[in-house]
Amino acid sequence: MQGKIALEEHFAIPDTLQDSAGFVPDNCWDELKHRLLDFHDTRLKLMDKHGIEMMLLSLNAPAVQAIHDVKKADEIARRANDFLAEQIAKRPDRFQGFAALAMQDPDLATKELQRCVRDLGFKGALVNGFSQINTPESAVYYDLKQYWGFWAECEKLDVPFYLHPRNPIPSMAQIYEGHSWLLGPTWAFGQETAVHALRLMGSGLFDAHPKLQIILGHMGEGLPYSMWRIDNRNAWVKAAPKYPAKRKIADYFRENFYLTTSGNFRTQTLIDAMLEIGADRILFSTDWPFENIDHASDWFDVTSISEADRIKIGRTNSVNLFKLKP
Prior knowledge:
This protein is of the alpha/beta class. Helices cover 41% and strands 10% of the residues. The strands form two sheets. Strands 4-5-6-7-8 form a five-stranded parallel beta sheet. Strands 1-2-3 form a three-stranded parallel beta sheet. Helix 3 packs parallel to helix 4 (106-118) and helix 4 (106-118) runs parallel beside helix 5 (148-157).
């Protein structure tokens, strides 16, 4: 398929480059480093070869969210956003951007989101999970009330928020001790992000801000497969839910979330997501440079879905959500 739009596509700046070093073997680091720092060479050539018209770019992980010094986190976020805006200006027909935000301070994050959307033309924000604030041992999630002003501004600006994974901090990752292979994209990324998303759904956030839209990668971080059970466990026990939200969790999932195909190139998983959330709420992505563009595109271009759904997922859903010019 030609004209695809991809939106979980990463880059790094020198300040955040080493954050990605541990995700590949040492003998692959030079290649990953090249991919992260490259914009207009290998990346564009692969986009052309595999029918990707546009990428929405975002900073690598955990980057800003792992900087517990609030002032420094905001400084790095602004530096990354200014750098990204410079790259986009060279090829706005091929690249657009997501803001990096220092969620350690909701007011600073709100101001930077406003700047990025209004002044830099970014299409939303991508944040790498929980933030560490003042100490490396903290993990702060965005369902907390201090973030609701930030969410109100997201809704007002009418831009989506991409909740991207990160690993749990070591002191909160005892379940993985002795099994480090489960960290990262194999398992921990998805579980960490799924719990964060469920916290948002159960908090009542979407009752207060019903137009707010959240994006999850990797075909929904396992949530589509579990959505029925979340709402229907022990159904014979007639008891009210223990969360503040007014509706079933699945209602928020279907109305306030989008999913991407990033890093999860399997037809059965795509069809399950389509059955749960609908083809109108799924978006093509590759997860470059951590996954290959050809793996994503070669699979998606022939996967067993209708051509109408392929065009929606590959292109038009993103055009509509991000208000892109065709």
